[in-house]
Amino acid sequence: MNVATWNGPLWNNVLERRRRGAMPHALLLAGPAGLGKRAFAAALAALLLCERPADVACGRCRSCLLVAAGSHPDRAEVKLELRDDGKTLRSEITVDQIRLLSQRLSMTAQFGGHQLALIDPADLMNTAAANALLKTLEEPGAGTVLLLIADQLSRLPATIRSRCQRLDFLLPNAAEAMVWLKSQGIEGAAQALDAAAGNPGLALELARGGGLALRTEVVTDLAQLWVYKASPAEVANRWAKADAERRTWFAAQLAQAEAAAQARGARGPLALTAISDFNKLAQWFRDAGRVREQLRTPVRSELLLLELLLAWRALAPAVRRA
Ligand SMILES: [Zn+2]
Q: Is the domain covering 5-168 a CATH 2.40.40.20 domain?
């Protein structure tokens, strides 16, 4: 996998550390999903294991071939495993998985080079798993490099964060993102990038996976609620049934874009009647973020959404209420 062009500076940063012999034992790759963290981690793991490395892994040596086949003995990957039903993924990385990894890392590298471990998503380790990992982070074996990948940095305990060198993945500028989206064969790249609030990976996913239609639905719902033409209960019920988290994310982004447009006297994506209280809208934006977090956990999502949508309707100017 190639490192995305906008992650070039981060890549050079790591290369520079490696040249100085200052490769950290633990790197934390942090930032929203869709910015290329996983491709970056895969490319870095390959580079560190490569027997003829240059600025990237050679792709042809014994190590590179084994990495490509997924069977390099010094490369371990910890990810969400299947539940006992054999069908659905667990929601957490468990302590047993981390213990197994630690055992493996305590042995010498079979090829005599680095021992690589990727933990993805590291922010979904449960508390016991995170505690078990601390010991490995405190006393890493020589040549061990752990790559932790986290879409939601705040979910990682501070004790873990403080023992890793952090690489922050940031949004590329729009021009760079557009070039990349077009190279992926995306039609209407500008619209997708706008819907994804500038995140190219998310834009790709939205364009390919019908996400733009979902966003259009959210636009209609918010606009209809604003003028009291939709029922919050009906909308909450529909949102709770499918893609609740994604819909809430769209709603928050749309509210923010609407506020930004109105503040400069332009028409926003929701085409709302004048927003009277920007402070309340900002509060609503924060509430939507909180609800999104809660939707990841087993809660009564319909109730949470209903509360959020009622709060949205309460923001509408009173004169419009029928
Ligand atoms: Zn190689």
A: no
